[in-house]
Sequence to fold (372 residues):
Amino acid sequence: MKITGITTRLVRRSSELWYAPNPVPAGYPAYFEFPLTTIHTDEGIEGYTMDYGPLGQGRASAIATHDIYRYDLIGKNPLNHEEIWQAMRVKQRHLYNFREAIWGNLDVALWDIKGKKAGMSIAQLLGMYRDRVPTYSSCPPQSVSTIEDVALQISKKMAQGFKGVKLQLSCGPALDIPKLRKAREVAGPDFPLMLDSSAVLSFADALKIGSELDDLRYEWFEEPMPDAHIIQLRKLSHSIHTPVLAAETVGLFELPQYMIDGAVDIIRGDVHHKCGITGVMKAIAMCEMTGFGFEIHTAAAPLLDVANLHVACATRLSNFVESHHPMFRFGLRNDPLEIHEDGCQHCPTGPGLGVEIDWDWIDDHTAEIFRN
Fold:
């Protein structure tokens, strides 16, 4: 089997879907653009993947896929994903203005082809551990701007059957701690709650909030400070009982340093940030060998999150998968990212990613097409 070509559709969604009920802020793009890439083969089997584009980077990502990575794909056997992955790793050394995410996205499509060729789901190829994963819901900042919003969102998510709720709060102790307390009051003493501070806090503020999380029995404190502040992360993780979940933006090959230094308690990752399915499974192996948990992060693009679900079903290290804003679920029939009555996302059973793309919907929302 050989790769014969690549096609990328730029799928456009209005930014109003994300910011509602507030207007789109000045200086932000009017659209989120999601590159949907198809890798074609000489056997007629196609592999699909996506990228994420909230800040105008979607088109640049599509162009980079075709200008940079086509040379690593066309003419190659897609079943030899490790060979292709390692070649992209070597190339990455001199792609100073690009991170590993595009390379990782393309790896997802190779696994989709591999699964279709074998007639097996990606989770089965990886070695399935389970067929469903408990799912928590994330509350974007605009949905929890007041204490009343917090109470409403917690009640709503619990009624929908989610197994946990994550608040995205990053305004500091004075504004955030009352919301954290309200969430615990509404949720009750045992319902899983998480906090994501989006890497904006100082150490002093993170320590105040972390101490409160200890009393409130939150599951984890996510990205309290930038991942690059490894010394401060280590101080925080050694100062509070609530597990510090971080390293979301850390590259796969820098990840061991965070483990060796004891900078975090639980590792964060997904197929987008950790070099595809091939890369994220290497990260999970690192965690299993060293005793760290690994929590799957949303990639905020439906095909990537389906890939994340397959990965989560092939490991015991992740307690949850993340369900984000509904605007990131689009273009798929029989949406596998919806939760079931048991509060879980269930792994698709079809070959590869196991999804059916709604090409009519995609055609209606395609702004541009790139081909090689």
In short: The mean pLDDT is 96. The chain has two domains: 3-119+358-371, 124-356. The CA atoms of residues 227 and 325 lie 24 Å apart. The chain has 13 helices and 15 strands.
